[in-house]
Amino acid sequence: MSNRPLLIIVFSFFACLMAHAQDNPTYSGSRSVGDSIIVMDATGHVYRIPATVDDDSQEWQDSDYASENMQPQSGKKRHIQRIDREVMKSVFVPKGTWMFGGNVSYSEYDGDNINMLVLKNVDGKGYTFSASPYFGYFIKNNLAIGGRFTYNRQYINLGNLDLNLGEDFNINLDHLYYLAHKYDGAAFLRSYMPLGRSKIFAFFAETRLGYAYSQGKNSTGTGTTYDGTYEVEHNLQLGFCPGLTAFATDFMACEVSMNVMGVNYKWTKQVSNQVETGTRHSGGANFKINLFSINIGMTIYL
User: CA nearest 138: which of 194, 190, 202, 204?
Assistant: First the structure.
């Protein structure tokens, strides 16, 4: 007797079972991902089912809803969502606003026969002046681009200076003269982060890229003991400057900032007594807080 009819019957039976499994999948495993459930049927297919809760029974809805809305998903793919901390959701300064401000400082020294530790018989005077206007335009809410210009002038004229380090080691300098001018231009990008929902206080972070040019001269002695040097210096700078803004009125704010880190490269050329020449190149990176670089200024927003 031939077994062919029996094989046909068995094959037809298993084919019906496979077709039924595909039409009505049974779930061999599940896990929750966000607002959906990942399930796997007996054939190895993976589906993402929206997780819905019935308000009355607080139970998942029946599998008829799941079967109608499930979509095959790849079990190996993982979608990582970016966390939105809503830091920039609050508008502190709107797009299209102009800002103008600046810093000005001046200090002066004048002494006659002053003694300080190892410095004796100090007689001289000097001053330091610095002005730094800047402007900016907000290309986006809380984000501005702009430029700043800085002028710095230093002057020292010491008639006499004695350095006393002991009975056998004394240094005397007379007619010590120093004068220097520095011009600094920089472009900056500044972003603001308001304190919560405040419209008055905000932190800001400013990145600067600038170039500085300076020239100066120094000399000591008079007559046959005269010795003088003329110097020109170029400086490339990339720096980061955080700060705090506090609005005093609707259009005027007080700002405090400080240089925290930066990279710079300098090259210098010197001419001594109009005969000897020398050059110097230096560079470095600074990743520490400079307490002597604290700036306080006023800014107008229009």
Answer: 190
What is the separation, in whole angstroms, between the first and last Cα of the chain? Answer: 102
Output the CA angle 215-230-125, nearest 5 degrees.
Answer: 75
Query: How many Å apart are CA 237 and CA 260, to the nearest integer?
Result: 13
Q: What is the mean pLDDT of residues 273-302?
A: 82
pLDDT tens readout for residues 129-146: 999 899 999 999 999 999
Per residue, the 3-state secondary structure of 232-287, as one string, reads EEEEEEEEEEEEEEEECCCCEEEEEECCCEEEEEEEEEEEECCCEEEEEEEEEEEC
Structure-token match 């006499």, residue found: 160
Please tell me whether residue 45 adopts helix, strand or coil conformation.
Answer: coil
Instruction: Give the separation between CA 178 and CA 160, rounded to whole angstroms.
Output: 14
The residues that bridge with 205 in the sheet, in sequence order, are 191, 242
Model confidence at 24: pLDDT above 60:
no
8 Å CB contact between 185 and 216 = no
**Residue 292: band (very low, low, confident or very high) from pLDDT cuts 50, 70, 90:** low
- CA–CA gap between residue 234 and residue 281 (Å, rounded): 10
Does the model's pTM come out above 0.70? no
